[in-house]
Structures are given as C-alpha cells and as structure tokens.
Amino acid sequence: MATNRTFTMIKPDAVANGHIGAILNDIIADGFRIVAMKYIQLTKKTAGDFYAVHKERPFYGELVNFMTSGPIVAAILEKDNAVEDFRKLIGATNPAEAAEGTIRNKYAKSIDANAVHGSDSNENAEIESNFFFSQFERF
Ligand code: UDP
C-alpha cells in the first residue's frame, strides 16, 4: 500500500455520543480522501488481536472491553503525508493534552475513551488497513 495512506477508527465513545458526522467532516475538511470505510462492532478476539502490541500494558483489558462496548467506524484515509498529518489532526492520546481544535480536544473525554485511532507509522497503517479491509473494499 502507498505510504500516503493511514488507518483510523472512530471509537465507541464518539459513535455513542453522536460525533460520527462531525469527525468525518473534520477529516474531509483537512484534505483526506476516504479510500475504504465500514461500520462494525469488534469482538473480544478482533479487538484483542488489533491491540496485541499493548498486551503487556496495564490498560490492555480495559482497552479491549471499551473497544468492544459498541460499534465503531473503521476507515482508510489518503492524503500526502497521511500518517503524520492525521496524528496532528487527532491530537495527543490524552485529550487533556490535545491541542485546541484537534479531534480528541473537541470530541474525547478521557485517555481511554479518546474518540479516534490513528496509525502511528506507515508500516502500522498498512498492517491495520489489511486487518480490516480486503483489496475489493478499497476505492
Ligand atoms: N490507552 C489507555 N490508557 C493509557 C494509554 C492508552 O486506555 O494510559 C488507550 C487509548 O485508547 C489509546 C490506545 O490505548 O488510544 C493506544 O495507546 P497509544 O499509546 O498507542 O496511543 P495512540 O497511538 O492511540 O495515541
């Protein structure tokens, strides 16, 4: 996959709080093109596998519980410098530290329920996109 793509999820808190439309609007307004998108609920297995890299961290169990607590929107996004620009658009992991105007600053309430996911490298963007989408689901 090209390195001008990233992977995102709108997490269960943002979906439950009615922010899907506003977040997609911010993403598109920032110049990202939607390559793929789906509305799904993760199982313990899929959420556990997706976050396997955090398995040893103290928040892993809570993270898996939270990510399976309701539906999410998963998407692949395209823009020059996508991974870095998207991390800038969403802001710091802890919304209390997220810059003014970022998605987490506007729509997240806590470090665990922080509204959105954004890949942290080109390599992970590709792995995460392949985890959710087949080649026939990308446009
Ligand atoms: N997380 C958490 N507690 C923490 C740190 C992280 O619940 O102390 C959750 C949070 O949902 C975060 C995810 O674990 O988005 C992955 O953590 P990471 O450090 O990779 O942050 P991100 O890349 O999402 O900003």
Keywords:
alpha+beta; binds uridine-5'-diphosphate; Alpha-Beta Plaits; 139 residues; metal ion binding; nucleoside diphosphate kinase activity; cytoplasm; 7 helices
Characterize the structure shown.
Residues 3-137 form the Nucleoside diphosphate kinase-like domain. This is Nucleoside diphosphate kinase. It catalyses: a ribonucleoside 5'-diphosphate + ATP = a ribonucleoside 5'-triphosphate + ADP; a 2'-deoxyribonucleoside 5'-diphosphate + ATP = a 2'-deoxyribonucleoside 5'-triphosphate + ADP. With 139 residues, the chain is an alpha+beta fold. The chain has a single domain (5-137), classed as Nucleoside diphosphate kinase-like domain (Alpha-Beta Plaits). The protein has 7 helices and 4 strands. The chain has helices at residues 12-16, 20-29, 44-50, 60-67, 82-90, 103-107, 122-132, and strands at 5-10, 33-40, 72-78, 116-118. Strands 2-3-1-4 form a 4-stranded antiparallel sheet. The longest helix has 11 residues, at 122-132. The chain is globular and about 35 Å long. The mean pLDDT is 97. Residues 59, 63, 93, 111-112, 114, 117, 120 line the site of uridine-5'-diphosphate.
